């Protein structure tokens, strides 16, 4: 897989639609990010993020709707809470918490989507390959 | 293992231009479960779909992956295609290699590598997909409308006219709501009674509407399509079968109490109808003020009633109704003037609120439409109107804008000037908001034709001196203090949710915002639905608004309900989050995160139960569940993890 390796979870309603818009607008961004589409960002569990790191991901991106815009009203607030906790957990596991990022990208923000991916890919490239002993 | 077929679309050159289709096909052949791979120029075309159907049969496929454009575009198309060939549609998945791959990358090598990973992850998911059938649940084709103001009336009439039965519950003796108290309505100044009372009469005469006045909802169970509602019919002490509404009882009743409908500015009897055009136009006995109920003697009304309709023995009665949908139209009330000590609210008799002023303007009101102030009945020569009282004041009162005050205050000042042409009308305002058809013109007319004086600024204090009401304010346009000596002050008090509504909303488990107004399922796309399926919100119960907006919402909710009732079953996507009872410890964490109240703890079993029809499939509960008992259908933890592994595998 193209390095650095990044797994991204996008919610169906906002971020995945924003990513689609980047496509229909023919914008470009680095090819490192492979998407997993979920219904809502709140579907993403600590286990999924840890499995990604365990199996060789260098970074994990979670994309949801902007606060107040979640298709399920409150889902993204759950996500925010969970990601905050997860970052602490990553620190305990000696994984730089910057390797996990939560971003709000709306269905109208094709441009912003590409910027988020570019910026995150660069950041992960700088952090280098993730070496985890055991998870 | 499943037999999966992968169909790779070129989409002309849209995909094939940057993704090396041959390489994708070669790579896919080696993925676990894949028994057949084919590529084609346009998979969504008729020949493309035929190809898929043929191969499903000849290769005995039971899972299909289409590597093509975004699932938003053709997921439905391809799921239909596969089901025509006998595969359960939920075993067909889309790998998006166009919008999220070929269109956004330029390097063929890289785009091809990414496309392969995307397809691989979708194959991994499909391997674990279950066959699912849409959830079906029967619909009781009757609706409950709570609140008989203009919003509730409009909703009830529309649903009834679509051919479905409606139970309309109103807590007061008559329907009509606040609008029945108005004189004229902005921006056209048509008489409120003239446009409202015909609708009230239609409600009473509509065969599909069961009108329950003087009643309240006391219990609700069930869910969308099948609610069971308990309604308490308060004892009216009058047998409506016998009563003709002749009014002799009211005339003879010796007890006089302040009339709420006239905001205390007139008196009514202990047996009363709320107002002359009340629907139903039959009286009730207010037991708290009735001499017989309080002291054990009188029964004068009984003696004078020619029809023997008075029934002192009548008791409150609780009835049960089954309905498929509920409309909440409980409206609003005004924030009490007594909350405004600095304005003399509640202390100074001639400092009144907007509804009270409506009664003074109304020709059926306590002064027969002459503007006379409450304290001494004199015609006020100077009236000050203060807007945004209690609204837009997050520090002391409420943060929101009450929306209708700009317009009705303009109306009030205008109507006052029509009644008292030599009088002076001042309006203190923070802003003038006149967004609405004909609204700005109405405001201009008040200033230009009627000479209403607008002063931009806040009123700091209102007090009495020498028989005058002194209004101290600050004109922010001139930067000077202003003082107006007034004979009467009208405060445009904040719109608040009806008292008692909170109890009802809790009963129904519908959520409200920080100010107590009902929350819509989506602020833009689902503005008249609550988060609880089957419960709709219309009128001021959802937030301050005027009559046209209330009516529009009512029409919208009614049409959604008619659509729902046009089917015998509710059909629901089956990708819900279920419960594995063997793993569930009944901790209830998932119950707390569910925005739709779809999950409940079953105390007997000690596990959680799911109401599938209420689940909207966000998956938040699946992520929150500590034991893995909550699993989203066709997006289980196992599926997500196998997708992750498929992507990352070297
Ligand atoms: C002073 C003033 C003047 C206005 N003038 C205008 C105007 O000129 N033009 C205009 O377009 N708008 C005007 N408005 C706004 C207008 O009043 C509202 O838009 C309209 O009344 C909203 O209707 P509704 O049915 O939502 O609420 P309401 O009229 O409040 O009706 C709600 C009904 O529900 C009943 N109810 C409440 N709780 C329960 C319960 N728990 N169970 C059963 N029944 C219940 C109530 O008794 C009431 O009958 C004015 C508002 C004010 C304050
Ligand atoms: S649906 Fe986008 S974050 Fe919930």
Task: Explain briefly what this protein structure is.
The complex is a heterodimer of chains A (135) and B (650). With 135 residues, chain A is α/β, with parallel strands linked by helices.
Characterise the protein shown here.
- Chain A is an alpha/beta fold.
- Chain A has a single domain, classed as Rossmann fold (3-Layer(aba) Sandwich), CATH 3.40.50.
- In chain A, 41% of the residues lie in helices and 17% in strands.
- Chain A is built from four helices and four strands; from the N terminus they run βαβαβαβα.
- In chain A, strands 2-1-3-4 form a four-stranded parallel β-sheet, with helices on both faces.
- In chain A, helix 3 (75-92) links the parallel strand 3 and strand 4 (100-104).
- In chain A, helix 1 crosses helix 4 (110-127).
- With 650 residues, chain B is of the alpha/beta class.
- Chain B has five domains: 4-132, Rossmann fold (3-Layer(aba) Sandwich); 142-234 and 316-331 and 498-565, FAD/NAD(P)-binding domain (3-Layer(bba) Sandwich); 248-304, no CATH class; 332-496, FAD/NAD(P)-binding domain (3-Layer(bba) Sandwich); 573-633, Alpha-Beta Plaits (2-Layer Sandwich), CATH 3.30.70.20.
- Chain B is 28% helix and 26% strand.
- Chain B contains 18 helices and 36 strands.
- In chain B, the strands form 13 sheets. Chain B has a five-stranded parallel β-sheet with strand order 10-7-6-18-31. A five-stranded parallel β-sheet of chain B has the order 20-27-21-22-23. A four-stranded parallel β-sheet of chain B has the order 2-1-3-4, with helices on both faces.
- In chain B, strand 29 and strand 30 form a beta hairpin.
- The mean pLDDT of chain B is 96.
- At the A-B interface, helix 1, strand 2, helix 2 and helix 3 of A face helix 4, helix 5, helix 17 and helix 18 of B.
- The structure holds flavin-adenine dinucleotide and FE2/S2 (inorganic) cluster.
- Flavin-adenine dinucleotide binds at residues 146-152, 169-172, 177-179, 182, 185-186, 216, 329-332, 334, 354-355, 358, 404, 408, 411, 498, 500-501, 504, 539-540, 545-548, 550 of chain B.
């Amino acid at each position: 897989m193209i390095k650095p390796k990044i797994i991204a979870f996008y919610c169906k309603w906002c971020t995945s639609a924003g990513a689609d818009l980047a496509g229909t607008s023919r914008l470009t961004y680095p090819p490192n990010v492979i998407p997993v589409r979920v219904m809502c960002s709140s579907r993403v569990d600590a286990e999924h993020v840890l499995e990604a790191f365990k199996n060789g991901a260098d970074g994990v991106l979670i994309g949801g709707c902007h606060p107040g815009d979640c298709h399920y009203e409150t889902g993204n607030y759950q996500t925010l809470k969970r990601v905050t906790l997860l970052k602490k957990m990553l620190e305990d596991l000696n994984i730089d918490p910057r390797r996990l990022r939560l971003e709000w990208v709306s269905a109208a923000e094709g441009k912003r989507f590409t910027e988020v991916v570019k910026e995150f890919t660069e950041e992960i490239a700088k952090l280098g390959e993730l070496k985890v002993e055991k998870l | 293992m499943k037999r999966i077929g992968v169909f790779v679309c070129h989409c002309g050159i849209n995909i094939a231009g940057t993704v090396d289709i041959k390489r994708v096909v070669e790579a896919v052949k080696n993925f676990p479960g894949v028994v057949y791979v084919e590529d084609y120029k346009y998979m969504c075309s008729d020949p493309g779909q035929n190809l898929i159907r043929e191969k499903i049969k000849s290769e005995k496929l039971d899972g299909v992956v289409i590597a093509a454009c975004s699932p938003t575009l053709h997921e439905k198309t391809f799921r239909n295609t596969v089901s025509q060939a006998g595969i359960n549609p939920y075993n067909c998945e889309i790998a998006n290699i166009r919008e999220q791959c070929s269109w956004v990358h330029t390097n063929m090598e890289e785009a091809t590598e990414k496309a392969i990973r995307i397809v691989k992850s979708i194959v991994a998911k499909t391997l674990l997909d279950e066959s699912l059938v849409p959830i079906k649940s029967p619909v009781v084709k009757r609706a409950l409308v709570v609140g008989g103001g203009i919003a509730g009336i409009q909703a009830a009439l529309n649903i009834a006219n679509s051919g479905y039965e409606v139970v309309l519950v109103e807590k007061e003796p008559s329907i009509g709501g606040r609008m029945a108290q108005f004189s004229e309505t902005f921006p056209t100044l048509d008489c409120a009674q003239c446009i409202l009372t015909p609708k009230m009469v239609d409600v009473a005469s509509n065969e599909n509407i069961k009108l329950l006045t003087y009643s309240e909802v006391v219990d609700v169970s069930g869910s969308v399509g099948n609610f069971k509602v308990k309604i308490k019919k308060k004892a009216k002490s009058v047998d409506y079968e016998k009563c003709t509404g002749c009014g002799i009882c009211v005339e003879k009743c010796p007890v006089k109490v302040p009339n709420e409908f006239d905001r205390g500015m007139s008196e009514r009897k202990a047996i009363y109808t709320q107002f002359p055009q009340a629907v139903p136009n039959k009286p009730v006995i207010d037991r708290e003020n009735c001499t017989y109920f309080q002291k054990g003697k009188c029964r004068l009304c009984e003696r004078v009633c020619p029809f023997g309709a008075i029934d002192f023995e009548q008791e409150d009665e609780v009835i049960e109704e089954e309905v498929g949908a509920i409309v909440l139209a409980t409206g609003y009330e005004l924030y009490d003037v007594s909350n405004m000590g600095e304005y003399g609210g509640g202390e100074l008799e001639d400092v009144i609120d907007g509804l009270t002023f409506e009664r003074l303007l109304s020709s059926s009101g306590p002064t027969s439409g002459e503007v006379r102030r409450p304290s001494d009945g004199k015609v006020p020569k100077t009236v000050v109107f203060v807007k945004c009282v209690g609204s837009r004041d997050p520090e002391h009162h409420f943060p929101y804008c009450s929306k209708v005050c700009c317009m009705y205050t303009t109306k009030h000042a205008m109507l006052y000037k029509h009644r008292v042409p030599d009088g002076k009308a001042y309006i203190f305002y923070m802003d003038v908001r006149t967004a609405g058809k004909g609204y700005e013109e109405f405001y201009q007319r008040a200033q230009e034709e009627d000479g209403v004086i607008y002063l931009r600024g806040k009123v700091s204090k209102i007090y009495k001196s020498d028989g005058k009401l002194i209004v101290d304010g600050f004109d922010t346009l001139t930067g000077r203090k202003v003082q107006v000596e007034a004979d009467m002050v009208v405060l445009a008090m904040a719109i608040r949710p009806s008292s008692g509504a909170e109890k009802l909303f809790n009963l129904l488990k519908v959520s409200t915002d920080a100010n107590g107004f009902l929350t819509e399922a989506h602020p833009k796309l689902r503005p008249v639905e609550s988060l609880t399926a089957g419960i709709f919100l219309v009128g001021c119960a959802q937030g301050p608004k005027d009559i046209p907006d209330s009516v529009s919402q009512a029409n919208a909710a009614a049409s959604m309900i008619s659509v729902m009732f046009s089917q015998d079953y509710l059909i629901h996507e089956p990708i819900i989050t279920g419960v594995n009872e063997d793993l569930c410890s009944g901790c209830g964490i998932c119950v707390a995160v569910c925005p739709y109240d779809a999950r409940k703890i079953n105390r007997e079993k000690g596990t959680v139960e799911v109401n599938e029809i209420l689940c909207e499939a966000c998956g938040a509960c699946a992520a929150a569940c500590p034991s893995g008992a909550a699993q989203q259908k066709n997006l289980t933890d196992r599926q997500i993890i196998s997708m992750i592994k498929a992507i990352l595998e070297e």
